[in-house]
Every structure is written in C-alpha cells, then in structure tokens.
Amino acid sequence: MRRLKIVVEDVKGKCYAGYEKGDTIEVEDPVVKGKICIYALSALIPYITAAYRETPSDDWINAIEVLQCPDPENTVRFRIIREK
User: Fold this and answer.
1) Average pLDDT along the chain
2) Does this model's pTM top 0.85?
3) For a tag on the chain, would you pick the N or C end, based on fewer CB atoms within 10 A?
C-alpha cells in the first residue's frame, strides 16, 4: 500500500469544516490522520482507493490532478499526492 497525502489546494467561499489552503490529510490504510470533512471524504474515497494501486503510467488515476468537495458554493479543492 502507498501512503497518500491530500493537500487543500484552495478554498472558494467559506469551508464549514474549517479547511484552509495548505492543510493536509494523510492516509495510510486504514488510518486517516488530520481533520476530514465527511462530505469531502465521500467525494475523495473512490480516488483514494484507486490511488493506492500500483498503476501503469497511462492508467486513468494518473491523469487526476485536483478533486473538489461536493459543495457547489463553498468549494474546497484537493490534490492527492502519492508517497511510497
């Protein structure tokens, strides 16, 4: 399994979970370290689980750069960084 770092890229509007640019969440299966908004987590989970896999360079998960929470008015954008 890989270790993942999820970094807050930017916040547009007011994030009610309190995220600010630069905040990080670390995921090392099955442990999540850092504050996590359940709404953001629901959007990130499919990508987190896919990012754990060893993948060829042309796999779709490698094309994902930034993901956002589902709140359309108070958007938080996240970047998933794979660490070994």
Assistant:
1) 91
2) yes
3) C
